[in-house]
Amino acid sequence: MQRVGRIIRDSYYRYYLEQNAAREKDRPFCRHDFQHMLDVARISYILLVEGNLIPGFIGRNRLDSHQAAKEVVYAAGLLHDIARWQQYDTGEDHAAAGARLAGPILERAGFLPREIEVITRAIAAHRRGEPWGGMLGRLLCRADDLARPCALCAAREKCYKADRMETLRETLIY
């Protein structure tokens, strides 16, 4: 997971996390911080493993190994919300902006062009899990919701997403 470690240490990645934190300091709802992104990465990988999807994921995306697949999934999870601050500032969809910001970080971390394409496509599609985002985009979408502790949230009565969140009905799924 050396390449994933490089993402976490990347100065731009850390800057984007700081920007999210600054915009969300008074937000009563879920935040888009490192812990959320790590939770999404881990849950995405669990979904891939539990669904016995790794061989197909490797083959469809022409990845070199199981380890490469794991790093691709973790990279996507860790980067999927890095542009939330831009959505607050400009109204631009954070998924599209995040895909754009993720590319250079992934290059610096040593990901291959094909891997970067898979990751950025998934990030761009993660809000609704659109088919063009591939299997990884769908996994990110589901993991994004499963990573939220809705049943324990003090702001759930005001949350626009609460009625569709599995984690409101069942406290802990992953």
From TrEMBL:
Q: What Pfam families does its record include? A: HD
Matches recorded under InterPro entries: HD/PDEase_dom (IPR003607), HD_domain (IPR006674)
Q: Where are the transmembrane segments?
A: none
**Span of the signal peptide:** none
What region holds the HD/PDEase domain? 29-158
Q: Which SMART domains match?
A: HDc (SM00471)
Q: What's the protein name?
A: HD domain-containing protein
